[in-house]
Design brief:
It is built from nine helices and six strands, in the order βαααααβαβαβαββα. The chain is of the alpha/beta class. It has two domains: 154 residues, 3-Layer(aba) Sandwich (Rossmann fold); 66 residues, DNA polymerase, domain 1 (Orthogonal Bundle). Strand 2, helix 6 and strand 3 form a beta-alpha-beta unit.
């Protein structure tokens, strides 16, 4: 991998819009623990296949799916609160950073590139993760409980760009799920797709890379707009 990077600030994205679960941190296993425990509490059986079907979805959509496929009798809102509280407990024990994520976040901060967290998790969980980063890492949070339409609708990413005062097409989004990638692409944001727990098909407007490890803020726009070489990752 070449270590030469442009120093010209015009090569930098206007902002980096980070997905959280599976991209910044690997909380999907924590969600799965919460799902298994809740369903088993009600005498049901959960599976990894069902759990993976929830990746990237708005939490109320996932909660309704869990209710529809188990004996759980809570409301969707109660399911979200129960599961998210369990994930926050696990985050307090250990923050499961994805490879290269903390380093890229820190490099973006040093380069003066604004960052937003754009996640379908709700504010309590997003805040727990943000609190584990260096102060000033994120300018804003756009969470699933503050948008009208969750991913794959473009609203979360359009909201982040608008609140940062930047053109969505000048940003770069980092996503790990088909649902999240579709949301970012629909908002016009050049997107890097970093598959993890689920495969991501070819989606026009997105470029797949293997990992964030080794990337710098100067790599993001060339890669996301197709000017770079995804194989270098």
């Amino acid at each position: 991998m070449s270590t030469a990077h442009p120093t010209n600030e015009s090569a930098l994205p206007a902002a980096v819009l980070w997905d959280m679960d599976g991209t910044l941190v690997d909380t999907e296993p924590y969600w799965m623990v919460a799902e298994y425990e809740l369903v088993e509490e009600y005498g049901g059986t959960w599976t990894d296949e069902l759990a993976l079907a929830l990746v990237g979805n708005p939490l109320l959509v996932s909660a309704q799916f869990l209710i529809d496929n188990s004996p759980v009798t809570l409301t969707p809102e109660q399911v979200v609160h129960r599961m998210q509280s369990r994930v926050v407990e696990q985050i307090a024990d250990e923050v499961p950073w994805r490879p290269g994520a903390r380093e890229l976040l820190a490099a973006g901060r040093e380069a003066g590139v604004p960052a937003a967290l754009v996640t379908m998790s709700w504010t309590d969980l997003a805040r727990a993760v943000v609190d584990a980063t260096q102060p000033g890492s994120f300018e804003l949070l756009v969470t699933g409980d503050v948008v009208t339409h969750g991913k794959p609708h473009p609203e979360p990413y359009l909201t982040a760009a608008a609140r940062l005062g930047v053109d969505p097409t000048a940003c770069v989004a980092l996503e790990d799920s088909p649902t999240g990638v579709r949301s970012a692409v629909a908002a016009g944001v050049p997107t890097l797709a970093i598959p993890h727990h689920v495969a991501i098909p070819e989606i026009p407007g997105a470029v797949r890379v293997d990992t964030l490890a080794g990337l710098t803020p100067f790599d993001l726009r060339p890669l996301a707009t197709g000017a770079g070489d995804p194989a270098r990752t």
